[in-house]
Amino acid sequence: MERVKLESIPLHAVHIQDSFWDKYIRLVKDVILPYQWDTLNDRVEGAQPSHCIKNFKIAAGEENGEFQGAVFQDTDVAKWLEAVAFTLASSGRDEKLEKLADETIALIGRAQCEDGYLNTYYTIQEPDRRWTNLKEGHELYTAGHMIEAAVAYYQATGKKEFLEIVSRFADVICEKFGPKEGQCHGYPGHPEVELALVKLYRVTKEKKYLDTAKFFIDARGQGGNYFEEEERGEKYKQIFPEFAGYQPEYSQSHLPVREQKTAEGHAVRAVYLYSAMADLAYEYQDKELEKACETLWNNMVQKRMYITGGIGSSGLLERFTTDYDLPNDRNYSESCASIGLAMFGKRMGDMTRDASYADIVEQALYNTVLAGIAMDGKSFFYVNPLEVWPDNCLERTSLEHVKPVRQKWFGVACCPPNIARTLASLGQYVYGKDEEALYIHLYVSNETEVKMKGRLYKVKMDSHYLTDGTVKILAERMNTAEEKTENRIGGKIALRIPGYMKKFRIYRNGEKLENPVIQKGYLLLENLGNREEITLKFEMKARFVRANPKVRADEGRVAVMRGPLVYCLEEADNGSNLSSGYIDTQTEPEEVYEPNLLGGIVSVKLKGKCISMKGWEDGSLYGERKPVFEDTVWKAVPYCNWGNRKTGEMAVWIKELIKN
Known about the structure:
660 residues; alpha+beta; Immunoglobulin-like; seven-stranded antiparallel sheet; six-stranded mixed β-barrel; 17 helices; 22 strands; 6-hairpin_glycosidase_sf
């Protein structure tokens, strides 16, 4: 029997009004999109120049000059357009914004070559070197982001111009690549186009797009490594000298994907690849490919993921290293990597209906993804460490990739527009549905309409999940002329019970459910009536979390979480030298709602001690003095909000005070 996956509710049908998320979602339309448009046009003072729009004008023959920026610079505007599309879909049509997007799409069309090829770097800089550097040329990666943006824009507006542009380019790709004689048997050095071609197939129904995506996945790691063969070719040019001594693991091409057991290489490339694998596992009902996805997911989240949902522990090459290697002060944890993790987790959750995937999606979205953007929407983190001492974040050292303050922009600016498109599309992560049931993955206040068993329901969720743990859901049957009024219609609602939630109560129409049955993390309410009132009361308390002792960086340390939020200590609240701190975990944390702090948060006060400087007044480096401990009350705030006040130290993992 063919497995049927859950589908997302269209963004235009999910109206989010949430006390936690609204401040971020509003930023996208009001601040982030205008700010990022200015950066793409090099109009933000003090920000690294983008050159992105200028490159398109040069490629279109409308300006003179040379290409500037990274070889994948086109993707900045692609992700910006995708964020625009999601914003138009979720927030309603905006004539001014839509007009700006249409003009940008028209420019992209004018920059497209006559044969359908689209890439400003190769059009301007090296027109005779198309497809000669799949390893690091990023042509297929750039194509993927263009395709994703076009699909989103078509779905939001119904306009076909952008979709036709990328379809012409996709046709070029399908003709160039494949298993047939005369075709190129290579695959992307940076996966992305695979998942994009699946999206294009789903809106156009052109099977060749799906087949080409499958070819890229199936060919990867087969036989001799394509990238090593490519380097020996006459036309190959090494664009990135830092990749000398290339290892196939870096691009997940060391083995056929179905044989890979551990998450390897560049973290963003990995999760984009895995997302496409999950898509294709469903489309082709490929159980072997699905099993490979499960294996890779389990290794990644159980042995190679930070508590914040960050992945990629090495600052060198932005990659995974080995199991349990999770340093806090020099990790990479790129914002894009956590976004890709959420993309992968969503696909796996929709396919398996297992809430453990949504647990990780929630962890990544609420922590690393949100930490990547300032609360004013105008500066960003590319790297997301779990411990920062600003004084040692020095250039030309092993910590030069760590920034103690968010940056206005980056020369390689994949993260800012990626965060924008993710926030604008949050609605796709809240629900999943099939013909009979509505699955609730995230507890975010919203209103939506959904059909269950052919009957239309209006669903309203009022969530105070992050404050007192209460969520109220009202599902009402919307009678239509063609439907008969019935008391019981047989629809279902599946409520995710987070894996970290130890105590909770569920009420259905005022009656408490005793001994509710939970399967794969979901509590299923069946046989819905015309009007259902559901109340969830989760025990939302701060809790202490410890790492596996094999995580050497966290041994003897403890982290604080409250619901999905990871907490941290900041110098702004606790003073400097946070490494001297200890937390008394035998004392109950005290929670305080502070409406005027960081937009309104629940802070957590923790009793503990710190090592005093008494006896070290002479400034000596070493001595035989015994430590002097002082009683201290530490204040922790959500990790996603760190760095929004003054520049200072930050730490997630703090030493645990052990009492005899």
